[in-house]
Amino acid sequence: MVLCARQESGVRQAIETLHAIAPSRVEGVVADVRVYSQVERLMALAEVKFGGIDNLVNNAGIGLFRPVDEITPEEWDAVIETNLTGCFYCVRAAVPRMKRRGGGYIFNISSLAGKNALAGGAAYNASKFGLNGFSEAIMLDLRYDNIRVSTIMPGSVETHFGHPSPETGHSSPASWKLDATDVAQVVLDLLRSDPRAMVSRVEMRPSKPPRK
Known about the structure:
Layout: E1 2-5, H1 8-21, E2 27-30, H2 36-50, E3 55-58, H3 73-101, E4 104-109, H4 122-142, E5 147-154, H5 180-192, E6 201-204
Parallel strand pairs: 1-2, 3-4, 4-5, 5-6
């Protein structure tokens, strides 16, 4: 497995966490998915260390939530470039390598905000609506190359990200939220599914959010 983060501390923490859960071979590199040259370096590392790329999980994301007349152009660019353009960069760099391997699987981690608009979410909603459309289009591009594409759309997940839920608007830590491992489990389940099946979209919600 090869992973990346924008800071060296994030790379180290992710590798240590994975080793604590299940010792395995993990490589990491500092990379910003908004910079194509860094993405290309990341994919090249995976090819060198592991002989190619079989699976890609696009999980980088940020959220900045303000009314549309208050969000700055720089904030807008940061959200769109990370959540949407960064995903394109990773797919663009990985697909030729997947084709050389005879196929693969791409997972784009989107959000229920990709179908449910929320006040203050102009940039985030735009990035996730766009990511869903991008995912559906590349699924059509790649299906005959033995590359499956699935979009996973969680609601509220208990992580440091802490964006408001498209369902409730809450953003404070709470035990009712999904855990990041719930999303990871969906990825693993889909990887184990028969290649003849294409699960194009998975929507996930906390089973018991606060009553409205």
